[in-house]
UniProtKB/TrEMBL annotation:
This is NodB homology domain-containing protein. One of its GO terms (biological process) is carbohydrate metabolic process. The lineage of its organism: Bacteria, Bacillati, Bacillota, Bacilli, Bacillales.
Amino acid sequence: MGKIKVLFWFDVEDFINPESEEALLGLMDLFDQRGIVGIFKLVGEKIRVLERNGREDILVKLRRHEIGYHTDWHSIPPVVTVYLEPLGFREGAEEFTRREEGGIGDLARITGQPVRCYGQPGQAWAPQTFPALNRWGVSAYLDGHDQVTMEGRPFWYGGLLNLDSLTGLMSLPLKDGALPEAMQEFDRLCELQKDEAVGFISIFYHPTEFVFAEFWDAVNFSNGRNPSPEDWVKPPFRPEGHMRMYLDRVGEFIDYTLSKPNVSYASTDEIVRMERSVSRVLSGDEVKSFALRTGNELIYLTEGPMCLSASELFWVFRQYALGLEPVPEIVYGPERDYPGDPAREVRVRDVFESLREPMPEVCGFKQLPDYFQVADVKMDPVTMTCTLAAIIREGLTEEDRIFPLNGTLAATKHAMNEGDWAEYWPIFPEGLQVPNIVAMSRLQTWTIKPALF
């Protein structure tokens, strides 16, 4: 059996109830006593409350663990998905930056640590978050969400290593009799991944749930409600002594996992460093090899330790065609799915000229245009990439002509095509639908590719 890496993470979000801070302290003690690293994703307002309340005991302990970001205000409307649904990809990334850069800045300032990962509040996922997170140096997306997935394995999407909705996603329910079942589930997930070089088990909690019988936000912000702070209420407490009892059970569970010879705990930073994809300048032969394998169904391609997403394929083909260094680079998908003009023969020279035009940018990163203007023909990015591959493999020159090769973005198979999310999370407004979020999530599969371990 290969190695099993456990990612044990906590969404530290309840900034209303100071009682939840004792559970946070207790959880960090469990990890510190065992010498393992936990991943604590904090809400901006929560870290500010800890600072205002003088909880230096908690802040000191946090420095021994990995810090992640969990948005600035979590469930206070409008939540991320809601405020980004009406916006385009570039505009949405800018809006996410405007709303969230203060929170992630406070988190880094107060903890004195780099912010390594991000996870959405509840189910409030959106593709426009990725360019902003990438610009802030966040390298991993850690959560549970199935809008974009890759068969339960880690994958690259939007420039981040995605560790969400893994095969090994689990939790130990805080109820009687749950410990033996959780141990069995852990063993089952290990066995399920026995043939992987590295398997992953992702375990999560919220400190607040050790103290309260209901979630802090469900009793205040369900269905998009937004009461004023003086009307916020506390959830019902768990019975006296239950917090300590459940903390001890989590400790027993951790001890059980550590008894396995191939199991160790890891931060997302360690997992990113373990990932072995190679990014370097490609040789001419390597570019031609990728071009030979690029047909009319555009998706990531793997060759040895190198895996290129659809947008990276476009980029290395472009660079090679223009006589520039073909090194893979993050290029985000376009704003919209533009069909392009009916295909008709074009000059290779005009194809190259269209590639020399400045590309759009999002948060300082390149973005595919909706279409390339090739003389009097509008060519969509998929057709352009497939046509470039044909130019390279056929050895055409600027003096030649070519009939554009229409294709499809087959990578969209990794994104769901549904828009009704109202039932996903009780905090969402009733009847919420997000067709724009869904459409953009599919367009950004230009950036998807498997992680290699």
